[in-house]
Amino acid sequence: MIDFPKEGTRSKTPDFVQLIDMASEAVGGKVLFSTDDFFAPAENLIKNESPTFKEHEYTEFGKWMDGWETRRKRTPGHDWCIIKLGVQGIIRGFDVDISYFLGDYAPRISIQAANLEKDNKQPEIPQRGVRTGTAATPQEFEAVAKLKSNNWNYLVHMTELKLDKPDSSHNYFSVNSQQRWTHIRLNIFPDGGIARLRVYGIGQKDWTRIDPKELLDLVAISLGGTCVGFSNALRGHPNNIIGLGQAKSMADGWETARRVDRPPILKNDENGTLLIQGCEWAVFRLAHSGVITHIEIDTKHFKGSSPDSCKLDGCVLTTHEEENMMRRKWVLPIHKWKPLLPITKLSPNESHSFSSLTLQLQDVITHVRLTISPDGGVSRLRLKGYPSSICLLCPRERPSLRFSVKPMHSECSMEVLAAASNRWFSDSIIFGAVLTDLIDLTTHSPNIFVAEGLPRPPNLVYHNGDQFYVGKKFFEVLLEQLTQQLEVSFGMEDRRAKPPKSLHSWCTILWEGQGTYMKGSPERELGSSSPDFCKAGLD
Which CATH code of 1.20.1250.20, 2.60.40.10, 3.40.50.300, 2.60.120.260 fits the domain covering 9-203? Predict the structure, then answer.
């Protein structure tokens, strides 16, 4: 993984600027409150465009500025504003841009953050309207006070800003926080101007609120997808191609350099594909493990530099495996990758869509590798499908699911929903759904999640044999995540087959009515299961 500097520290042209600007108005960011907007409104902070300067432009209130500028403060206190993020998720860093504010920039700032969805603390705040020349009213102060933003977490403590070039003066601050944030508060001390505030990070969807029938772009950066490795990037980072909306230009895509090892004279095969051995690639971690059912590869704007062909592969990797692959520059054993899209011819400036071309598209995956040949540019990659918590059921056979939460007894380690289809491609019933994101890992009181409407399957949940079998690999992802976050060892037991000897801990899948329960417990001797243990906590 990327090593981020210490929380709240300044960094020089950091990697996080390749991530999405979570506060931008282009993704739904919104200013909820500002103490003062006299010279220029706080809405300018979240404009998608870079700041500009008009030397001779004035308003009735003073010099026109492309940013947020408050009046010269003559009362106690300092100015601040609250922004609702358009993309909620994990913040990796900030860019506090004071370009063109040569004599009026705020000398110091601090930044706080909160997750208001978690506590449902979202009081009604008056609409802002046109704000230039105004300050917050007593009614607005009273409404925003309910947010208790003074007590929000500090991601950047009070820090002095540095003025660099007049037309490009960026102050970068790295953040090392794994929490999900929905709102931020920008404090300026005591007053002044800021041109732009960029909040860079990775989206993190609240998967407990998804519609089971909703088709999602599982690689979208707004949901949490991200590039974890690539071979070459001449113009634009691969993260661009999983960004929001359509690409605005070639600069909004991913373009590689021309390969110098291409042959002097190019030739095609019988299918019209170039006979070139070299290629470029990018690996992405999905926002949520799942099944891909629709693939879209867009070469819009790349009229003279689109790839000749591409292919897409997927695999299941644990966090530890991903870290190893990043150190090894993604030299992954060939048998790890499953072909999701075979070598396919691409056309310039065109969107290409594919649906369920291979059986592997029905497998759960956590990572994908896009390979383009021989080189060139792509503007967008969309991988639509269903999160793994519901998608192991074949789409045409997937029943309607309803999830409900029931409290568990405190003496139980934890219980997790498991759902399975009546039939799988291997003719075995495998572990069908893992709702790791539905578990409230922030409390000490575990919950049990019940899926209603599922057919009652046989009791086989683990397929012994091939170590790369998708059911086993996917279950390993669950076990690692739970072990890391809950500090409890987990394993599994096939009620009709003896567990592998390599497992030192175990759990049992039990079917009860229309729901399925998985019981996890601390380590115990293999073969020591008993009816009393299996039923513990399920009353």
Answer: 2.60.120.260
